[in-house]
Write a structure and sequence with these properties.
Blueprint lengths: L12 E12 L2 E14 L4 E11 L13 E11 L4 E12 L4 E10 L2 E4 L3 E5 L2 E5 L2 E4 L5 E3 L3 E5 L6
Antiparallel strand pairs: 1-2, 2-3, 3-4, 4-5, 5-6, 6-7, 6-8, 7-10, 8-9, 9-12, 10-11
């Protein structure tokens, strides 16, 4: 191996204590942090530890009523160009509206988020648990699966 050779599997970019922001049409649409972020150009693959991101949904979408959404997880891997990823080690979601959800592992694939582990969720008018989750990223469908229990208030605030 020459001095200029790089070991197989070494990231093209490796950052520690990183923060990022994404702007669209003059407004910040997402931002986040990670204790460690490794990126490989080939396949757009990234690996991160202690990652968190906050996304502001586009007005008029199914998620807009939640306000911003903040995700965090101890471990995240993804393929940016293929819009796929997995987070594990305790995945948390908090929304500006006051919703909170937690699961051990979540997978993102294009327009779908799923979990095959226990999910707890509570917010205005509900407190529920399920053994899995299947959701569309546009907010048009959010379902707890494989057995669900909890409480729903038909009119929150009463």
């Amino acid at each position: 191996m020459s001095q200029d050779s790089v070991p197989e599997g070494t990231p093209d970019l490796s950052l520690r204590q990183v923060a990022f922001a994404r702007l669209s049409e003059g407004r910040m649409v997402s931002r986040g942090t990670a204790a460690r972020l490794d990126y490989r150009r080939s396949g757009g693959r990234m690996d991160a530890d202690n990652g968190s991101a906050q996304v502001t949904p586009e007005p008029g979408t199914g998620l807009a009523s939640f306000g911003w959404l903040r995700f965090s997880a101890p471990h995240v891997q993804g393929e940016i160009t293929n819009r796929r990823g997995t987070a594990w080690g305790g995945v948390d979601l908090i929304t500006q509206r006051g919703d909170r959800a937690r699961t051990e592992r979540a997978e993102y694939d294009g327009d779908v988020v799923r979990s095959n582990t226990k999910v707890t969720a509570r917010g205005p008018g509900y407190d529920v648990q399920g053994n899995g989750l299947l959701a569309r990223t546009d907010g048009s469908s959010i379902s707890l699966v494989k057995g669900t229990r909890g409480a729903l208030e038909m009119e929150a605030g009463k």
